[in-house]
Amino acid sequence: MMEAKPKSREIKTAHLIAYSSVIIVILSAIHLFLVLDDSVIKQMLMNSGQQASENAVGTIKSSFQFTGIMYLLANLAGVLAIWNRHTYLWWFMFAVFASQILYNLINIGAVFNAVLDVKSGINLVPLTVVLVMSFILAVYMLIVSLKRKSTFNR
């Protein structure tokens, strides 16, 4: 009977990570491909006093999208937690959540200001939720690993 409870906790934790990863992927994709359009990138450049040439807009947009796609794929790896609750997956997902926060915080002011200048405030929701969820998950995973002295309660 003692085995059932830890297994249940392990599975619940894995499902939390997996389903949260899917939500993060969906919201990140909305941010990358719907919110960060040419008008937002152009506004970012103008806000920073740069010339908003077509080439500059395309280069910056491609850079955001390329890096964003890498994070989409990395977050999708979290779905594996449904079937495979390996320690390496735990720490990989922790690293994804933590680095995603740091990467997005670099340009957060410029991105948010440009979005607010060109679009409505509702367009800030996807990235904001991604950052909040990533932070909560990273902190949760760190606390669980320290408290249980393990990952996925193993």
From TrEMBL:
Keywords: Membrane, Transmembrane, Transmembrane helix
Provenance organism: Staphylococcus caeli
Name by which UniProt lists this protein: Membrane spanning protein
Membrane-spanning ranges: 16-36, 64-83, 90-112, 124-146
